[in-house]
C-alpha cells in the first residue's frame, strides 16, 4: 500500500491524502482472530511504519511480528 500511495502522490503532484481508519466492527476483528480493544495501538504502529517506508531507503520492522 505504501508504494501505491507514494506513486499516486507523485502522479498528483503531491495532492494525495491517505485516510486511515481504526475500524468499528468488532465482528470483523473477531473473525480475523484479532483483539478489538488494541486496534488503536496497532493502527499507530502501522502508520509509523508507512511513514518510514515513504521516507527511508531501508526499513526493518517488527510490526505484526506477534502473528
Structural description of this entry:
It contains three helices and no strands. Helix content is 49%, strand content 0%. The mean pLDDT is 88. The longest helix is centred in the last third of the chain and has 17 residues, at 39-55. It is mainly α. The two termini are 20 Å apart.
Mean pLDDT: 88
Give the topology string: H per helix, E per strand. HHH
Distance between the termini: 20 Å
Tell me about the largest β-sheet: none
Q: Give the strand content.
A: under 5%
Q: What is the overall shape? A: globular
Unreliable runs, pLDDT <50, ≥5 residues? none
Class of secondary structure makeup? mainly alpha
SS element count, helices: 3
Alpha-carbon Rg, integer: 14 Å
Helical content class: 40-55%
Tally of strands: 0
Features:
67 residues; globular; mainly alpha; 3 helices
Task: Please give a quick description of this structure.
The chain is mainly α and 67 residues long. The protein has three helices and no strands.
Amino acid at each position: 500500500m505504501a508504494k501505491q500511495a507514494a506513486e499516486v502522490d507523485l502522479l498528483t503532484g503531491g495532492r494525495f491524502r491517505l485516510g486511515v481508519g481504526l475500524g468499528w466492527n468488532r465482528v470483523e476483528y473477531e473473525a480475523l482472530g484479532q483483539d478489538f480493544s488494541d486496534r488503536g495501538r496497532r493502527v499507530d504502529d502501522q502508520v509509523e511504519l508507512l511513514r518510514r517506508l515513504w521516507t527511508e531507503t531501508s526499513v526493518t520492522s517488527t510490526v505484526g511480528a506477534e502473528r
